[in-house]
Amino acid sequence: MPVITFANAKGGAGKTTAALILATELASRGHRITILDADPQRWISHWHEVSGRQRNIAVISEVSMASLQCHIRENRQTTDYFIIDLAGARDALVATAIGLSDHVMIPVQGCAMDARGAAHILELLKQLDEKAGIRINHSVVLTRMNSLVTTRAMSAIKALLAARGVAVLDTPIGERTAFRDIFDCGGTLYTMDAARVSNLDKACENARLFADEVLRLLPVRKRIATERGFFRTLQRAA
What we know:
This protein is an alpha/beta fold.
């Protein structure tokens, strides 16, 4: 049961949208998903309330640094993938979630502010590696990309991050009406009415490609660390 965390120290980078798209896509394939909504805005919790009971998806809204690991431990037998949506911050909860992750997704819209927020997360990952010997796989995912500028933006950002050894997903999250409407309407992309949502088929294809690429990045077996060693690591990396 891999843990996938979406993190950027700046708010509004598209973390919540990317996390929900991945969660609902994986659930549609029959995987059991537990979303840990650690964003104070609680958009995913709101989506869950609007949606009602969703097959293969559970949402936990009350998430703190103290409870995070307990939630993972208590739900591991009924979960295939944990997805954590974090606040746009760099604090103890963010550090804890990242330390417990199998892969960290860093959403970036392609603007300077998002890049700086991503840099904070990359620095935290570096500290965990250098100070504590915990190396966590991570990737940047471009979000809210307009199809007219995707190629140019992706080339520029990939070149910049490649120089720092940071991978960028080949599949960006496009600027789609369906990705916005899902938070108001509830449900999933597959329960939306194509007659009312423009380019719904393209949004579904985007979600499928994104999920496929994320799954290819996940380890075959979950990284194992003891609780005592992990929290000692956080103290050393802080």
